[in-house]
């Protein structure tokens, strides 16, 4: 199962350069995921959105990112909306 909510968006920034912005931190984490094949595979193995969120929070925190459940859900919703909107022209 592929998690479309992990689409690439912004460039990763070192922890010291990030502001305390959960959305920006999640976007940076998501970019880091796409740069790390093992991390990507681990997240793609999630079978539910709840599992994906929980694992994202755990893996992100372990790597120094600071985001919450709401940031993950918002990113998933943005990705879903972007995917749908591409078909509405």
Give a concise summary.
The chain is mainly α. The chain is built from four helices and no strands. The model is unreliable at 1-18 (pLDDT under 50).
The SSE order reads HHHH
Largest sheet: none
Proportion of strand residues: under 5%
Total individual domains: 1
Structural class: mainly alpha
| Rg, Cα atoms, Å | 13 Å
What is the number of helical segments per DSSP (H or I, 4+ residues)?
Answer: 4
Which residues form runs of ≥5 with pLDDT under 50? 1-18
Mean pLDDT: 82
What is the helical fraction, as a range of percent? Answer: 55-70%
Distance between the termini: 28 Å
Give the oligomeric state.
Answer: single chain
Strand segment count: 0
Shape: globular
Structural commentary:
With about 90 residues, this protein is mainly alpha-helical. It has one domain (about 20-85). It has helices spanning about 20-35, 35-45, 50-60, 70-85. It is globular. It starts with about 20 loop residues before the first helix and ends with a helix.
């Amino acid at each position: 199962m592929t998690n479309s909510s992990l689409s690439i968006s912004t460039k990763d920034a070192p922890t010291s350069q990030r502001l305390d912005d959960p959305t920006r931190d999640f976007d940076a984490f998501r970019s880091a995921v796409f740069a790390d094949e093992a991390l990507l595979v681990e997240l793609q193995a999630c079978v539910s959105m709840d599992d994906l969120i929980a694992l994202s929070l755990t893996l992100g925190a372990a790597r120094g990112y600071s985001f919450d459940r709401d940031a993950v859900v918002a990113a998933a919703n943005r990705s879903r909306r972007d995917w749908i909107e591409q078909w509405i022209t």
